[in-house]
Design brief:
The complex is a heterodimer of chains A (83) and B (324). By secondary structure, chain A is mainly α. Chain A has a single domain, classed as Up-down Bundle (F1FO ATP Synthase). The radius of gyration of chain A is 19 Å and the shape is rod-shaped. The mean pLDDT of chain A is 93. Chain B has twelve helices and no strands. Chain B is flat and about 65 Å long. Classes of the chains: A mainly alpha (83), B mainly alpha (324). Chain B: InterPro entries: ATP_synth_csu_bac/chlpt, ATP_synth_F0_csu, ATPase_proteolipid_c-like_dom, F/V-ATP_Csub_sf. Chain B: Belongs to the ATPase C chain family. Chain B: It holds the Pfam family ATP-synt_C.
């Protein structure tokens, strides 16, 4: 098995990309689900405010999504940019 | 110190066996303990219903136990199945099989305990609805077992498909990644599906006449929750059956291992999150069944947003596999 320094770096970058996206996806998934759950609860109590509640839910989820997007960006950087 | 491949294969199958039953025991035990706890809590104020509650508790625990039994079967096969192979590649396959079976049983075991506990509680509150509650509990916990069945399938494929003609590099990582992808990605959907099923049981107990809208909303909610387990299963199948050229460096191997980790860990969060959403939505569907359409729609929008990180993981995993 050949083993050069460049290979080691590239291999570690690709494994890191996988770990970054995988672990980074856990938090937003749970958090956005919780936000949506509470929105459903609120709509159940005040169905006439469904529009306002859905909008607020989406804004909240968008913020919660940000760390997932950071992970995606880092994963793409590790895969395609770093040498 | 060099060992021959027979030694490596034996060592890996024993390690895989331990991991399978070790991880596999976590979920079912927690789920069953939670069910038993709730059953006791109900019996404290309804001692006369001990027969009904005990029956529901045992049926629910039996479903939760199946996840651990799958892991035990794989574990026994790894020890006594007479497995072997001509190359050290089989060692990675058996390690992957143990991880797939063990990790995938965690979520389904915990998850199946939630509907069982909610059913005991619901029957205690509304004894007349015990038939409807038991039915919805069985549907809910049966669907919650799907992720661990994916894990079982991947474990069987890893143990019994002959990979010995494949090149060692990068296939060692493809086989290990296949086990990790399905195993880890099953944890979230298993637990999440259980949360949806539990709220459905609670809702049917509260309003037995709303059985139909609750069942429909539950099936939609659990179905969406399972999606990341399906992505994990898909990535595993691609890792097992796509042909990768023999490589002379570590790079493709680690790309494939990274794909397994990306999809595996990435499936956990959306599964749990979508389950939480489905749970709250089902509570409200039970409270005001006439608003079931509005609630199902909001639930699906929320779950779709929560799904997005699972889709990022799928994309990253596919990119890693395709560039390997």
């Amino acid at each position: 098995m050949e083993f050069s320094g460049a290979d080691l770096i590239r291999a570690a970058a690709l494994l890191g990309a996988g770990l970054a996206m995988g672990l980074g996806a856990i938090g937003p998934g749970v958090g956005e689900g919780y936000a949506a759950g509470k929105a459903c609860e609120a709509i159940g109590r005040r169905p006439e405010e469904a529009g306002l509640l859905t909008r607020t839910m989406l804004v909240g989820q968008a913020v919660s999504e940000s760390t997932g997007i950071y992970s995606l960006v880092v994963a793409l950087l590790l895969m395609f940019v770093v040498q | 110190m060099a060992f021959d491949h027979v030694t490596w294969i034996k060592a890996a199958s024993y390690l895989g066996s331990g991991l399978a039953v070790g991880f596999g025991a976590i979920g079912a035990a927690l789920g069953e303990g939670y069910t038993a706890g709730k059953a006791n809590q109900v019996l404290a104020y309804r001692p006369r219903m001990s027969g009904d509650i005990l029956k529901t508790m045992l049926v629910g625990q039996a479903v939760a136990e199946s996840a651990a039994i799958f892991a035990l079967v794989i574990s026994m096969l790894l020890v006594f199945g007479g497995l072997g192979g001509p190359t050290p590649l089989s060692a990675w396959a058996y390690l992957g099989a143990g991880l797939a079976a063990g990790l995938s049983a965690v979520g389904s075991g915990v998850g199946s305990g939630f509907p069982a506990a909610a059913a005991c509680e619901g029957i205690g509150r509304q004894p007349k609805a015990s038939g409807q509650v038991t039915l919805i509990m069985l549907i809910g916990s049966a669907i919650t077992q799907t992720p661990c069945i994916f894990g079982l399938v991947i474990a069987f494929l890893l143990m019994f498909v002959d990979f010995s003609a494949k090149p060692y590099y990068p296939y060692w990582a493809a086989l290990l990644g296949a086990g990790l992808s399905t195993g880890l990605a099953a944890i979230g959907p298993g637990a999440g599906g259980g949360l949806v099923g539990a709220s459905a049981c609670k809702s049917v107990a509260r309003h037995p006449e709303a059985q139909r809208p609750v069942t429909t909303a539950m099936l939609v909610g659990i179905g969406t929750t399972q999606s990341t387990a399906i992505y994990g299963f898909l990535i595993s199948l691609i890792l097992l059956f796509k042909s990768f050229p023999a490589s002379t460096s570590y790079v493709p191997s680690f790309a494939l291992l990274g794909a397994g980790f990306a999809m595996g860990f990435g499936g956990i969060g959306p599964g749990i999150g979508e389950g939480i959403t489905g749970g709250y939505a089902l509570d409200q569907v039970g409270r005001i069944p006439e608003k079931a359409t509005l609630l199902t729609r909001t639930m699906l929008v929320g779950q779709a947003v929560s799904e997005s990180t699972g889709i990022y993981s799928l994309v990253v995993a596919l990119l890693l596999v395709l560039n390997a």
